[in-house]
Amino acid sequence: MRPPSAVVVANSASASLLDLIGNTPLIKLQHLVENPRVEIYGKAEWANPGGSVKDRPALRMIREGERCGALTRDRTIIDATSGNTGIAYAMIGAALGYRVKLGLPRNAGEERKRILRAYGAELVLTDPLSGSDGAIRVVREIVEADPGRYFYPDQYNNPANWMAHYETTGPEIFEQTGGRITHFIAGLGTSGTFMGVGRRLRELNPGTRLISMQPDSPFHGLEGLKHMETAIVPGIYDDQLADEQVKVSTEEAFETVRRLARHAGWLVGISAAANVAAAMQVANRIDEGVIVTILCDDGSKYLSEKLWEAA
To answer: What does pTM read for this prediction?
Structure first.
């Protein structure tokens, strides 16, 4: 559910689809830890109109492109994506009247492909074994072959990505916790969420501990997340920002997806579950604190995944 302020905006005669991006709820995740002095909260980013945290940076990057003149009506928005940023581009492109073309690993979930096509996006399916890095390489080749045809936001290297979270997600979390947040945890994909929120929280309360999360292996099933030691490192990533790093296995994330759905009533996506798994790791080794993580999207785009077949 959206907070009351967002409902008012939605009912406003002057509101647009894009006005609904941001101001997402902060949800207390009950029964995850036994220590009553430790609280875990998730930022419910599925409440954005495109269904994920990526609505925020996608809108910021597109608006910056318009502002500087790089995005014009005769250019197609193009980028590499594992799904959610692409959906955000496609939704915003449809709302604003821009064509959208996306490089997407061929093994991306069928739900995501259908959503993208429903918005009218053109898909270039890339080698599944190369993951998001392979999609990045293919998109770069397309842009280099005809640069005048495209607006390439390049979400992995565009500072507007992390600035969207610095200006919106970070202040929202601080306000929603009444400034009580002690630990912030987020996974690393483009790294925009962690960079933006982390930098803003460090300004608002230098004592907040910033913890990054990534998969525990180069060969993993955590779509949208990068194993930084072996992947193309995003240009916006600063490895000095985090106070510490935790790693989550694919199996741990999958088990957390199922646990949250069946025992807490929260149907979340795989990267969201990985964030929660990391938050639980931290919660189990501290005496007290207020931990906040990002519920990147809900689980509706992952229902065809084999993880649901496990016991």
So the answer is: 0.92
Among candidate residues 78, 73, 80, the one with its CA nearest the CA of residue 98: 73
Q: Is the dihedral of CA 246, 252, 253, 258 positive or negative?
A: negative
- The structure tokens listed for 121 are 């996006």
Segments making up each domain of the chain, as ranges: 4-53+162-309, 55-151
Same fold, 4-53+162-309 and 55-151: yes
Q: What is the mean pLDDT of residues 204-217?
A: 97
Burial of 221 (0-12, 13-18, 19+ CB in 10 A): middle
Q: Once rounded to an integer, what is the mean pLDDT over residues 33-60? A: 97
pLDDT at 12: 42
Strand order from edge to edge, sheet including 150-151: 122-126, 100-105, 76-80, 150-151
Q: Does domain 4-53+162-309 have CATH number 3.40.390.30?
A: no
Domain 55-151 sits in CATH 3.40.50.720? no
Taking each continuous run of H as one helix and of E as one strand, the counts in the chain are 10, 10
The pair phi, psi for residue 261, each rounded to 5°, is -70, -45
* Catalytic residue annotation: 54, 271
